Amino acid sequence: MLAIPPSDAQHTVFFYSAIHKYTGMNVIAPFHPETYVWCMMASGSGLIALDHQTFQMASSRLYWLTPSISVSITLHSEDSECYLIFMEPLMLAKQRGKWGIARNLALPSVLQPGEIALQNTGKLLLHAEKLYAEQLHAESLDCHIEESGLHLQHTFQQLHSFIMQDLLEQQSKDPSAKKLFDLSIKYMHTHFDEKITLETLAGLAQLTPTSYSRSFKKEMGISPIEYLTGLRMKHAKESLLKNNSTVTEIAAAVGYSNPFYFSQTFKKATGISPTLYLKRKQLKVATASCFYFTDDLIALGTEPVAAVDCFHYPGIAPADHQRLLTASLNEIRRAQPDLILCDQYHLSFLEQLKGIAPAVVLRLHAEWRDSYSKMAEIVGGEEKAKHALAQLEFNIHDAREQLRHALGKETLTVMRVDHRLVRIQGRGGHPLNKLLYDELGISPGSIVPPDQTSVYYEPEAVPSLETDHLLLQKHHLQAGSEKVFSQLQRAKHWDGMPAIQKDNILLISNWFLMSYSPAGRKRIIENLLHYTSG
């Protein structure tokens, strides 16, 4: 390729390279694209993970993949059809009256990696199907390579032009949107190391600061200041890991004149200070958590110097809990950690933990991969985390097939009995629900709520439950869950439950907490496979 000097007459053109089609329940091995890729979900459902961001794949959705990002794709349903269309970008540039060509990996300003929302997806799928059919035709016939190549390029250009035209039409409906993306975002990317005011960005978009902020958040999902801060933190982290610069120098290089304010902002974004981030792979880490942080950290290459659980569980007397708390805090002190990781159930002890070492709260929620990825970043285990998540997708795919053969259309329900009530897990919200009913494809029992995380019943009031298998956890034994379970067994509908009549009951440990991490989910899958194989 020619080396093209800067020119005002430059155009990026995409040329077709290849198309692949994946069908049924399938796992596409993790890869890092060397060029740009359109990922198109024609039908069915699945998951696509782009670096640390995961998207639910559904029929007619489109995703833009860019060079060097980590991509893993799992197709969850038998009717799944997914196309990957690879393309090569070339830059045409006119210099001194002559045109030249160069490979160009600069990201088009109208596109950002991730899901791309189109107005007309029906025609898009027709273009993709036509391109794939022509590719098969070219491979099967003894035709001239040049002739078939021209047909493929023509069909691809129709598809690509259709997408770009759809996006441009969306922008043209709101002229300020083009200014927001093409001017203000470009300005932030090129001037992040300088002082940037909201007034400056709003002026580029020809809007008032208030209107600009409102429009920006509507388009991007975050405020302009949050976007700029994220951009600066990204560059700061890269500089901390690559350069021997001081924190003060890096702060100035990403647009902060006050190193103290930079450190505060960095800590808010990452959970730890720039100084700790520099030596994150050598940190002595302690944990204070009800969750399985120890297993996660070991898998990420960091063994905790201390691991405690200070939560005041029901059934534990206040005096006994105080003794436990004192012993736990002393255990952490003796370990002399550089950092303490704790969960949301330890917020009431946060100040005491901070008196020992800097503490980071990892709030676990339904999007558990976000918390796991944050933990990985804190200890420098990003690559191990990517591998663990990719391996988990393979495990889920294999287990789904085995469970389909073992269970067929038999149903399964998760029940937790605590010291007061009986809880039936639903299909929504909780990571355990998503794993069992969505990712593993198990059919739920009759009273499993479709859109709720769970429902609670008095033990005597549990309705008739048509389920072939029952996963049961007795929670808070010290507080009296056995008594509640005895009441449940005497309830009107208990003996009539198919799972009870067939003795299909599996007593489980705390799968609810285990479902928040790859290691825990792997153990859940192993337990399920062992249960169904018996």
Q: Describe the sheet with the most strands.
A: 6 strands, antiparallel
Radius of gyration, taken over Cα atoms and rounded to an integer in Å: 27 Å
Number of helices: 19
- State the total count of DSSP E strands: 20
Q: N-to-C terminal Cα separation, in Å? A: 62 Å
Broad shape: globular
**Mean pLDDT across all amino acids:** 84
Strand content: 15-25%
Description:
- With 534 residues, the protein is an alpha/beta fold.
- It is 44% helix and 22% strand.
- It has helices spanning 121-140, 145-172, 175-191, 198-204, 209-220, 224-242, 247-253, 259-270, 274-278, 293-299, 318-335, 350-354, 368-378, 382-407, 431-439, 481-489, 498-501, 511-514, 518-533, and strands at residues 9-23, 26-31, 36-43, 45-50, 53-58, 61-65, 71-75, 81-95, 98-103, 114-116, 285-288, 306-308, 339-342, 359-361, 411-417, 422-425, 443-444, 454-457, 469-474, 505-507.
- A hairpin with a 2-residue loop joins strand 4 (45-50) and strand 5.
- Helix 4 (198-204) packs across helix 5 (209-220).
- The chain is globular.
- The relative contact order is 0.07.
Give a nutshell description of this structure:
The chain is built from 19 helices and 20 strands. It is α/β, with parallel strands linked by helices. A hairpin with a 2-residue loop joins strand 8 and strand 9.
